[in-house]
Write a structure and sequence with these properties.
With about 350 residues, this protein is an all-alpha fold. The protein is built from 14 helices and no strands. It folds into two domains: about 1-245, no CATH class; about 315-344.
Length: about 350
């Protein structure tokens, strides 16, 4: 029983990471990235390939792949995130420069399909449709863990990583950079008129989100020990979108709620349930229907999600300004800050 619980906890945390990455692109900057699962896959493949020894045309490992560097954790994981970010720079340069909204989304999903076909058919890249397998379990030798102990241990490691990334993302969203992202999301024309380089900020948003995607993909392949093209069909992107929409667009805490409701309870929990006698696979179809119904209900009755985004209002900003002004005045009276400035 503990194995199943730890597995669900792992997917809760890893999809929280994936949702944060897509949220910075879609929820904060307004980029409809329907190719998001492609960045997850690249992160998984690169992490797995750099964990393995050099591929010698199938001898020894029985696999064909590039980047056999035999790196240990967490360097292989960081490599997956960095390569995903580099791919995001290329994709953003192609898509974001001239395309907007619907056309942007169509080109992105087309690029995802192209990437899928390349990985599926070009065997020397990442072993074709068989994908990578026999990925070493991180830190097993250091802590002398059994396979069952590794599941709980790595779920805890993923939780720590997700917490660190949440701290980073939360600080980013409350920074001037995060406010610029939201300004571009709300009206890119106004942001451009105010002197903001919209393309530069959109590319930066893509890079940050792709890094999160690569980290999430790397954690998935190290947890499961394998990864192939059946794990990243284009429809998987919409599962991450469902996590964001249900949890709350633009709200990091809501993403954790969405990950619990959608990914943990509706996607992975039914996978552990026994099949209905005489109806093999029916649970998975019911599961997909429930996700669709949940999305429609949320969009109709609560489009802001379970945890709505906290948008700074004029009243709140004025209160912050008044507090800062009083603090500076008190400091000036005490003679502690003669050159203090009021900032928002």
């Amino acid at each position: 029983m503990s194995y199943y619980i730890y597995t669900l906890v792992f997917f809760l945390f890893v999809y929280f990471i994936l949702a944060m990455g897509l949220n910075i692109q879609f929820g904060q900057t307004g980029i409809l990235n329907f190719a998001y699962i492609g960045f997850v896959a690249i992160g998984a493949y690169v992490t797995g390939a750099t964990s393995l020894p050099t591929s010698d045309t199938g001898i020894g490992t029985g696999q064909h792949y590039i980047l056999g560097l035999n790196l240990s954790f967490p360097f292989n994981l960081l490599m997956g995130g960095v390569v995903s970010s580099l791919l995001a720079v290329v994709v953003a340069g192609i898509v974001l420069r001239r395309l907007r909204t619907d056309y942007q989304a169509m080109v992105l999903i087309s690029l995802s399909l192209v990437l899928y076909d390349i990985c599926n058919n070009f065997v020397p890249l990442f072993n074709g449709p068989d994908g990578l397998y026999n990925i070493p379990e991180p830190m097993v030798g250091i802590f002398h863990l059994t396979s069952n102990q590794f599941v709980g241990f790595f779920a805890a490691v993923t939780g720590v990583i997700s917490f660190i990334l949440w701290l980073f993302m939360n600080r980013l969203m409350n920074s001037p950079l995060g406010r610029t992202f939201r300004a571009i999301r709300d009206d890119s024309g106004v942001a451009s008129a105010l002197g903001k380089n919209v393309l530069k900020y959109q590319v930066l948003s893509m890079v940050i989100g792709a890094f999160f995607a690569g980290i999430g993909g790397g954690l998935i392949i190290q947890f499961g020990g394998s990864f192939n093209t059946s794990a990243w069909l284009p429809g998987e992107t919409f599962v991450v979108f469902a996590v964001i929409i249900v949890g709350g667009v633009g709200n990091n805490l809501g993403l954790l709620v969405g990950s619990l409701l959608v990914e943990t309870l509706l996607v992975h929990l039914p996978a552990f349930l026994p099949d209905i006698p005489g109806h093999t696979g029916l649970i998975q179809y019911i599961d997909g229907a429930l996700i669709g119904i949940l999305l429609m209900v949320m969009l109709w009755f609560r489009p802001q999600g379970m945890v709505a985004e906290r948008v700074p209002t004029t009243e709140r900003l004025l209160k912050r300004f008044a507090r800062s002004k009083r603090a500076v005045a008190n400091a000036a009276v005490d003679g502690d800050a003669p050159n203090a400035q009021v900032t928002l």
